[in-house]
Design goal:
This protein is an alpha/beta fold and 175 residues long. It has helices at 29-38, 54-57, 62-79, 97-101, 106-127, 148-155, 165-168, and strands at 18-22, 44-48, 83-89, 132-139, 142-146. α1 links the parallel β1 and β2 (44-48). The protein binds zinc ion (ZN).
Length: 175
């Protein structure tokens, strides 16, 4: 082996402020980091995956949801996480894009994202009782917090997805 970088990484274990589920779209990387900093999250455990919180709300494959849930469990077990940050962003390819699926209408896109974040929140809260969940939408002008009341209202429109929270809860892996 040949050393190509010298850098002293911290050896101490850390407590994670929040497990963050967001898209890997690099256009929003800086906004995401600034938002976390503003939210007081100095030590996140990031889950950067295509579509972000979509994996929990409306996964293309069910194992996407299982995988993300498992990552959050590991963040809890290894780093004491008690908070999850869910993110979606405008013009996300996983949703078909702003100009494609939403025909350039950011209002329609936002409304759909509210429904998605409500579904993701309901899923997480049923799978991990007591977990704190916060939802954000990133767009080309900044970041927007989605108030719990908004996701609860949107959840009313998605009740068919989660008719019984217990039926969608995954068995908690051994910890
Ligand atoms: Zn995306």
């Amino acid at each position: 082996m040949r050393k190509v970088l010298h850098f002293d990484s911290p050896r101490e274990k850390y407590l994670c402020d929040a497990s963050v589920v967001g898209c890997f779209d690099n256009r929003f990387d800086t906004a995401c980091r600034k938002l976390l900093k503003r939210s007081g999250i100095a030590q996140p455990d990031p889950n950067k995956i295509a579509g972000g919180a979509k994996a929990l709300a409306s996964p293309e494959q069910e194992f996407h949801r299982t995988f993300v849930l498992d990552q959050i469990y590991k963040s809890i077990r290894l780093h004491g996480t008690d908070r999850v940050i869910l993110m979606l962003h405008s013009d996300c390819g996983a949703y078909g894009g702003l100009s494609g699926r939403f025909q350039g209408d950011s209002g329609v896109e936002t409304a759909h994202y509210h429904t998605e974040l409500a579904a993701a929140t309901a899923f997480l809260k049923s799978a991990i009782p007591g977990i704190k969940v916060e939802s954000f939408i990133l767009d080309f002008e900044g970041a927007w917090v989605v108030e719990e009341s908004a996701t609860a209202a949107a959840q009313g429109t998605t009740s068919s997805i989660f008719p019984d929270p217990a039926s969608t809860a995954f068995a908690r892996p051994d910890r």
